[in-house]
Amino acid sequence: MTHEYTAPVPDVRVTEVPEPGAVTIVVPTYNESANIRQLLHQITESVPARLPCEVLFVDDSTDDTPEVIHEAAKDCPFPVTVLHRDEPVGGLGGAVVEGMKAAGSDWVVVMDGDCQHPPSLVPELVATGERANAGLVVASRYIKGGSRAGLAGSYRVAVSRAATWLTKSLFPRRLHGISDPMSGFFAIRRSDITADVLKPLGYKILLELAVRSRPRAVTEVPFVFQDRYAGESKSSAQEGLRFLRHLVGLRTASPVARMVGFGLIGATGFVPNLLGLYALTVLGMHYVPAEILANQLGVAWNFLLIEHLLFRDRRRHRRWWDRAGRFALIANADLVLRIPLIALFVHRFGMGALSATALALVTTFVLRFAGTEALVYLP
Ligand code: GDD
Ligand code: MN
After folding, report:
1. 155 vs 168, residue with greater confidence
2. Rounded distance, CA 222 to CA 25, Å?
3. Are strands 218-222 and 136-140 parallel, antiparallel or unpaired?
4. Residue 54 is inside which H or E element, if any?
5. Is residue 160 a contact partner of residue 151, using CB atoms and an 8 Å limit?
6. What's the rounded Cα separation, in Å, for the pair 339 and 337?
7. In 12-142, which ranges are continuous DSSP H helix?
8. How far apart are CA 362 and CA 340, in angstroms?
9. N or C, where is the chain less crowded by C-beta within 10 Å?
10. What is the pLDDT of residues 323-365, one digit of tens each?
11. Distance, CA of 359 to CA of 342 (rounded, Å)
């Protein structure tokens, strides 16, 4: 990934090398000009006296947020830096990773720019991490003493609950001990961040870090999710879809998991296949050509899902029509190969028809997966 930054504005204070044990507070911002002063004021009130800190905004705004930060920074007793991205990659999570790469302190605390995360908790997050010798300290809404008071509306509460449950069931081991993997407020030791393996996508940066960076020990501190100080959430339905793609990407990182995903997607292909077959025969087509055509519908459906879910970040090697052609070829070769393969198993190895069919299905499935990996989406 390459990012371009606008040159720092001259009046920004250059970040000095912070003392060991100090903290870099990374704040992702997207059009938050009305919240900046309040946030910096709250940080000033609660952090510097107890902990040397610097604040690093990673900004993707299209409004005057960077200028407002530069202005407000003049009244701050700690260094404030703005890293503005002209070409934002990865959304909120991408911004946070950029901030982590640029951070110089032992600890990085990530928090939102809209005052929903109380800065008064920053020293406690770091102190807890030091005490427990942990790599990650999560500020959680879901342990005793925490709450989600600021999560507006029962709809958002329900969505947040469902997402947390789904995510925890998908990663039982990696998220062990993390009650709130959706939290955007946490402290992480810089030495535990493996920036190179991260592929942030949207809001859930803590999840990304827990699954891919695997920090050594994890602890939690309760917190009360506050109301937004000004403006509105930048989340949207599109962000929800991005979250699902992120989940699939994280879950299918290993080849075995990817093969399972490939199989599950393949299994859903029977729906368009049957619908197509039904429509074509109702229109009066003979069932053999109808079968062949309907099968292509299933292939197209599978291709779309696989493109957008499974091999999302492996599409750059070929053009889309090249990939589609190869994918269709492999899928149809599978069908053509199946009958002679069954015959071979029955006549040559004396297998029963049923077990021969099952074995042929498994064999062609594995071949199709391997072929798709190697010939359509180069690793
Ligand atoms: N740089 C950058 N780029 N910042 C962004 C972007 C982006 O694309 N999108 C949002 N932000 C910033 C916002 O400006 C804000 O400072 C912070 O990220 C959080 O965004 P909100 O839009 O306020 O998020 P939210 O309140 O809906 O969600 C928060 O709470 C959730 C838990 O309910 C976030 O912390 C989520 O990560 C968290 O899951
Ligand atoms: Mn918010």
Report:
1. 168
2. 19
3. parallel
4. strand 53-59
5. yes
6. 6
7. 33-46, 65-73, 91-102, 122-132
8. 14
9. C
10. 999 999 999 998 889 889 999 999 999 999 999 999 999 999 9
11. 8
CA distance 15 to 235: 31
CA atoms of 165 and 236, how far apart (whole Å) = 20
Helix 287-305 to helix 255-268 angle (10° resolution) is: 140
Are 12 and 80 in contact by the 8 Å Cβ rule? The answer is yes
Type and span of the H or E element at 186: strand 186-189
- Is the minimum distance from the CB of 182 to ligand 1 under 6 angstroms? yes
pLDDT single digits (tens) 2-41: 344 444 444 444 444 445 569 999 999 999 999 999 999 9
pLDDT at 355: 94
Q: Does 233 sit in the ligand 1 pocket, CB within 6 Å?
A: yes
Chain position carrying tokens 């069931």: 169
Say what the pTM is: 0.86
Distance CA 121, CA 238 (A): 31
Give the confidence band of 378 by pLDDT, cuts at 50, 70, 90. Answer: confident
Pocket probe mutation, ligand 1, options 235, 238, 239, 247, max atoms within 8 Å of Cβ: 235
pLDDT tens, position by position, 197-247: 999 999 999 999 999 999 989 999 999 999 999 999 999 999 999 999 999
**Residues 118/45, Cβ–Cβ less than 8 Å:** no
| Phi and psi at residue 227, to the nearest 5° | -75, 150
pLDDT of residue 18: 47
Structure tokens at 304: 């779309």
Q: Whose CA is nearest to atom 27 of ligand 1?
A: 233
Element (H, E) at 192: none
